[in-house]
Design a protein that fits this description.
about 375 residues; 11 helices; binds pyridoxal-5'-phosphate
Length: about 375
Amino acid sequence: MNKLKSLSNIETPCLLLDKETIDKNIQRLNHHIGNLGVTLRAHMKTAKSVEIANFLFEGAKGSITVSTLKEAEGFSNSGFTDIIYAVGVSPQKLDRIYAIRKNGNQLKIILDSKEQAEFVSEYVKRTGDAIEVLIEIDCDGHRSGVGPANKERLLDIAAELKRGGALLAGVLTHAGGSYSAKSKSELETAAEIERKAAVDAAVILRSAGFDCPIVSVGSTPTAHFAKDLKGVTEVRAGNFMFFDLFMAGLGICTKEDIALSVLTTVIGHQQEKGWIIVDAGWMAMSRDRSTTNQATDQGYGLVCNENGEIVIDLIMVSANQEHGILAFRNGQKCSSKEFPIGSKMRILPNHACATAAQHQQYYVIERQQIMGVWSRFNGW
Ligand code: PLP
C-alpha cells in the first residue's frame, strides 16, 4: 500500500482501521482455536470487505460465512468459493443463491424447518442443483434453530432434504446468549453449551444414517472462551477482528484491542456545559447503545486523542445526526485549549458491526499513518 494523506488532512468523519491491532486480534483467535484443533470460518458480516478477507487469510481464499447475499456475491466474485450464508433462507432468495452457485461457488444455506426444506427440495428438483444445506440448531433459545431436544424435527428436515436431492452439509449453531454472560465461567459454559448442542445434533443425524460433515459453532465470546471443541469442525466469529466497547465490557478484549475507530473533528464547545461538539453524530457512530446495560455505559463511544490514546472518562454523551456531544463522565469541564476547533479525535465504537455499517470504506492506518483504503459492501 502506498502512503496516502495524513490523519490531520483527511475529511471527517471517517472510519479508521488499525492494521497492527486487527493483525494481533486475528492471530490471537487463530492461535486459540488452532490449539483446540479447529479452523476458522471467518464471519465477514462485520468487516464486509474483500481486502480484509485477503488480509485475514494472507491472500488465500479461505472458508467464510456471510450474512447477506450482497456479501456472498461480492466474495464469490473475488474468488471465495466456500461460503455459508448463515441467515435462514426464504423462497425469494433461491434464484440469487442459484446464480452464485452456477458460477462454480459452493455457497451453502441454512434452515431450521420442514417448510424450508420442502421449498428447497422443490427448487433442487427444478434446477438439478444439489445445494448444500446446514440445519441450524438453537443452542440457547436466543434466536432461531431446531432445539437440541427436538430430535423428530431435526430428522424430519434431514429426510425432506434427502427426498428432494439436496445435500445435507452439516449443522450450525450460534451462541447468541453468550453476549449477556456475566463472568468468565458463564462464557465458558456458553461455549460448552454451544459445542454440545451442535455435536449432539450431528450424532443424532449420523445415527439415523445421514451424513453430517460440518459441525459449525461460533460467536466472538464463545470462540475465545471455548476450552474444548471436540466434535466441532469449524468456528465462526466475525467481530473478533475489530472488537468494540461491548466486547471489552464483556471481558473478551481490552479497549486497547479495539482496531476500529471513527475519526472526527472538533467543531465547537459549550464551555458552561463542559461539552465538546464534534462532526461525528449517530450517522457516523450508529445508534447502537449496547453498553447501556453493562457495568460501564460508554454512551455513543469512548473518546481518544488523534493518536488513539484514550482520554480517560471522556465519552460521546449524546448524538444528533451529524453532531456528537463529548463530555467527561465526572462532570469535569472540557478545555477548549486542549481540544481546539479543528483538532481531531477518535471515537471507539460500542458495536463495531453497526458503526462500520455506517461507512463505505476503511482508512487503514499503521503507526498513525494512512497506508491505504479498503472497501466495504453495504446493503443487501
Ligand atoms: N454465526 C452467526 C450465525 C451469527 O449470526 C453471528 C453473529 O451475529 C456469528 C456467527 C458471529 O458472531 P460474532 O459477531 O460474535 O463474531
